[in-house]
Amino acid sequence: MTLNATISRVTDRIRERSADSRAHYLQKIARAAEEGPRRAHLSCGNQAHAYAAMDDKDDMAHTRMPNIGIVTAYNDMLSAHQPFESYPALIRRAGKQAGATVQVAGGVPAMCDGVTQGRPGMELSLFSRDVIALASGVALSHDCFDAAMYLGVCDKIVPGLIIAAATFGHIPAVFVPAGPMPSGLPNDEKSKVRQQFATGEVGRDELMKAEMASYHGAGTCTFYGTANTNQMLMEFMGLHLPGSSFVNPNTPLRDALTVSAVERAAAITRMGNDYRPAGEILDEKAFVNGMVGLMATGGSTNLVLHLPAMARAAGVLLDIEDFHDISESVPLMARVYPNGLADVNHFHAAGGLGYMIGQLLEAGLLHPDVKTIVGDGLERYTAEPKLDGERVRWEDGARETLNDKILRPASDPFAQTGGLKQLEGNLGRGVIKVSAVAAERHIIEAKARVFTDQYQVKTAFQAGEFTEDTIVVVRFQGPRANGMPELHSLTPMLAVLQDRGLKVALLTDGRMSGASGKVPAAIHISPEASVGGPLARVRDGDVIRLDATMGTIDCLADDFDVRKPAQADLSANAEGMGREMFAFFRNNAGLATEGAGCVV
């Protein structure tokens, strides 16, 4: 199938924009690769330190067996990462069988946004991505590894690990998932109880019961938020084994896939005949394929923030216009909560990523000629893993959807576009996700209510102050103001107002979770208010027009352009819950439209 003209045009635009930075990057990783196996350059004393606690230290010191380094985000706090506790032992055994040695190179922090939503700790969340990248860099700085295996799943963890994998791009990188928890209380029922709690219809006991029935075991949360969007990206970009993203934890197939990942990591080092450095996989085509997957699945808006930072680490420069143009050309093929009632387990059972990749390849919407960890060509990712004894074999995946209420063919999608829109106007640049927003709510013109934090919005809601169509402006929420926390805790209240018949929308320089849905939310507005961006000039009562159809966001006040920007007292964001230590990140964060990064 001929490549779609828009996909080709966007890829060419990215390649041209990135010509200098990508060329410099490739030269850098080529120089690193030319030095040969890393351990060969260590002194005897260096090596003795590196191998002192290893059972197979003689193999490491005297043979050319590849040494695999594990970078793990294991902790008990995240259900998605708890299964990683047992992975190092399994990987060591599999490595020995594959003729490789294995060491845990280091651990990285992994926080749970579900725990910190609406709390001060959420102000560290975005910057944890950069901390994870830095921690991974420390782990790999020992220069002992011929390949790296990255154990991570959730929101900032995978983007941080990708930044590190790209920075150490001469080393092959294999990403290893843990899988989603089994289905629990349906997500729409959980959401209904949250709204009932917001209005006082049910008490905390009922809310707690619903939440515990939804988040009930080991594995990723089952809605299609940022964590599961990350897993999709790793397949679309060729860094997972095919079909491995949504296999449940602690199952024989999950363990067999991990063993196969070890074997692949051992096979693609520079010491063998199929060298596949991460930096060559992470090229312009891979990132375009990732954006296509984001749109086709209706994935998290957080990846519009993360992908530019991930790509920049590999010398690839993305812009939100790239996301917009791809969204306009890629059909929405999946309905997974919050864009539908199904969860990721239902999506996987309906044919999952293999079916979707096959459909998009046939439609000419993906680059087929890419390098992946399993070989050349994305066609390999249409296969489905099956257990054959204790081993994995891959067979042809689904060629027809097994549930067209969840997964549709590219020729007959749920919507003709991916639902992500670029917004631009006198209020700045940002994005809106409309795949779950009713068409009659794509254009809202209403008076503004201006707030400087989400807690003020909650107070106004509880006081019954929202009685007319309103655009809720929550500003001073950008990376330089307070770390750009997600404002997902506002969703139940705004949904209640919408259900009462009001037209409401959120406008913010902050973030909204991948779990957001039916309420229009113009997010990532840049430049942010704390650096004098246009949001700082908005006043209560200003009429704002949000037009997701035309892609515009404007304040209609006659004197808007000549107003002095408001300032806010941000001292409360500077301390408590570790925020003192993150002043460097707040002071040096980039624009949200460029990934809001500090380290790249």
Automatic annotation (TrEMBL):
Q: Quote any Pfam family the record assigns.
A: ILVD_EDD_N
- Cofactor annotation remark: Binds 1 [4Fe-4S] cluster.
Enzyme class of the recorded protein, top EC level: lyase
User: Which reaction equations make up its catalytic activity?
Assistant: 6-phospho-D-gluconate = 2-dehydro-3-deoxy-6-phospho-D-gluconate + H2O
Query: Where on this chain does [4Fe-4S] cluster bind?
Result: 154, 221
Domain named Dihydroxy-acid/6-phosphogluconate dehydratase N-terminal is located at: 66-379
**Gene Ontology MF terms in the entry:** 4 iron, 4 sulfur cluster binding; metal ion binding; phosphogluconate dehydratase activity
Name of this chain's protein: Phosphogluconate dehydratase
Per the UniProt record, the source organism is: Paracoccus tegillarcae
- In the UniProt record, what gene is named as encoding this protein? edd
